[in-house]
Amino acid sequence: MTEEIRWGVVGPGRIAEKVVEDFAVVDGARVVAVASRSLDRAQGFAARHGIERAHGSYADVLADPGVDVLYVATPHPQHHAIALGALRAGKALLVEKAFTATVAGAREVVEASRETGVFAMEAMWTRFQPAVVRMRELIADGAIGEVRSVQADLGVQREFDPTDRLFALELGGGALLDLGVYVVSWAQMLLGAPDTVTAAGSRFPTGVDAEASLLLGWADGRSATLTTSLRNALPGQARVFGTAGWIDVLPRFHHPQTIVLHRADADPEEITVPQLGAGYAHELIEVTECLRAGRTESAVMPLADTLAVQQVLEEAAGQLGVTFAEDTAVL
């Protein structure tokens, strides 16, 4: 690994536009290439962000010898094929959530990462937010006792547009893969993989899920109540309930700055911990440091957690009558 970690962006869309700006506060890392299936689009992105090389195909960036790690921000069903190609080319990966469109696809990527010894991580920036890190420290120290239940919601109101990616089944549209992944990952982070998944919701005319309420259950009685939606806006708040208190995570919980600790016989304690940059920097720092240290997984966002989250998402989608597929022809 070179002293400077050289990044390539795959899929110059809305999220990538935001993420690349945070490289300004990440030491020893630089974006050197961007790839799109439209060369014009890649060149425009490169010009806006001062990136050296623009590739007009995903295959070209996989073959670029000057790239150490790829940030993959294409639509969900394209992650699987791009990730496999990258791992076979020896390029480390930061893959946007949801990691893939299917559990089978996620499992294949995880197996390839472990077989090749090449680093891979899901870009769940929430886990790296300083306020969330502080919350997990408090929980580990027993501040609220044993965690017994979790609540979280995340939703936005979007007018139905069958031409938009969010409403296209073949592009992995719907609430679950775009927003539900946050609430499910939140519950999994705190409680582990559930024993039961019960989902209720509705679909748009294109077949993707419009909204979903999930009840996750554990054999010992723990539970998580989760809500996600593209039909209506939701506060974006989370709560973690323990046997000795609870923690409020103020909106929006997936990139919070403030948590409030509630304990018996004590006044609420408000704790504010700002992010670096726009908040994406922390996951970029994690990947950069892992690569320098020769790690193949993140301890904060391990691949086993990603697989557990994908399993819940797929089970919930199936209960709503939604089935996704990987795009095997993307390369």
TrEMBL record:
Name used for this protein in its record: Oxidoreductase
UniProt-listed Pfam families: GFO_IDH_MocA (PF01408), GFO_IDH_MocA_C3 (PF22725)
Keyword check for Coiled coil: no
One Gene Ontology MF term: oxidoreductase activity
Species of provenance: Modestobacter italicus (strain DSM 44449 / CECT 9708 / BC 501)
Family under the similarity heading: Belongs to the Gfo/Idh/MocA family.
Organism phylogeny: Bacteria, Bacillati, Actinomycetota, Actinomycetes, Geodermatophilales
Domain GFO/IDH/MocA-like oxidoreductase: 133-247
InterPro entries for the chain: Gfo/Idh/MocA-like_OxRdtase_N (IPR000683), Gfo/Idh/MocA_domain (IPR050984), GFO_IDH_MocA-like_dom (IPR055170), NAD(P)-bd_dom_sf (IPR036291)
